[in-house]
């Protein structure tokens, strides 16, 4: 099975930036659309970005549009989430997820559309 590993989380001051990575060393990500999700305590997991398998299509909810940027380097089997101008309300566990076979420009922010999940990485934004 595809194994995804997130990295790059940590503690950052308000206004700071982090770049999260989602990587696998055993499988190519060429055929997977990738989504980034976050879950804060007591809240449902929500999508914050997605990118199609070829990288040609991306989507963001209005809450993070212009703040977060998703990208991928299929040659490195890695997807990135650049997070700028971080605010305390961005504090959450961030997960990457992969959807197999969703080729072309398919992209989704729904948890149910994804097949494989990483373990999550904690992002904490202090005031």
Structure description:
This protein has 127 residues and is mostly beta strands. Helices cover 0% and strands 46% of the residues. The protein is built from no helices and 11 strands. Strands 2, 4, 5, 6, 9, 10 and 11 form a 7-stranded mixed beta sheet that branches. It has a 4-stranded antiparallel beta sheet with strand order 1-3-8-7, with no helix packed on it. A hairpin with a 6-residue loop joins strand 5 and strand 6.
Q: What's this entry about, in short?
A:
This protein has about 130 residues and is an all-beta fold. The chain has strands at about 5, 10-15, 20-25, 30-40, 45-50, 60, 70-75, 80-85, 90-100, 115, 120-125.
* Shape category: globular
Structural class: mainly beta
- What percent of the residues sit in helical stretches (DSSP H or I)? under 10%
What share of residues are in beta strands?
Answer: over 45%
Largest sheet: 7 strands, mixed
The N- and C-terminal alpha carbons lie at a distance of 40 Å
Mean pLDDT: 94
The quaternary organization reads as single chain
Q: What is the rounded Rg? A: 13 Å
Order of secondary-structure elements: EEEEEEEEEEE
**Contiguous helical run count:** 0
Work out the number of β strands: 11
């Amino acid at each position: 099975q595809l194994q995804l590993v997130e990295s790059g989380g940590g503690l950052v001051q308000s206004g700071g930036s982090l770049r999260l990575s989602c990587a696998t060393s055993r499988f190519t990500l060429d055929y997977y659309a990738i989504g980034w999700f976050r879950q804060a305590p007591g809240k449902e997991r929500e999508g914050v970005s997605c990118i199609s398998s070829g990288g040609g299509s991306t989507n963001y909810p209005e809450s993070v549009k212009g703040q977060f940027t998703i990208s991928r380097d299929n040659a490195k089997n890695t997807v990135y989430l650049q997070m700028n101008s971080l605010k305390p309300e961005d504090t959450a566990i961030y997960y990457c997820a992969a959807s197999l076979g969703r080729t072309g420009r398919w992209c989704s922010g729904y948890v149910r559309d994804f097949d494989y999940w990483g373990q999550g990485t904690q992002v904490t934004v202090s005031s």
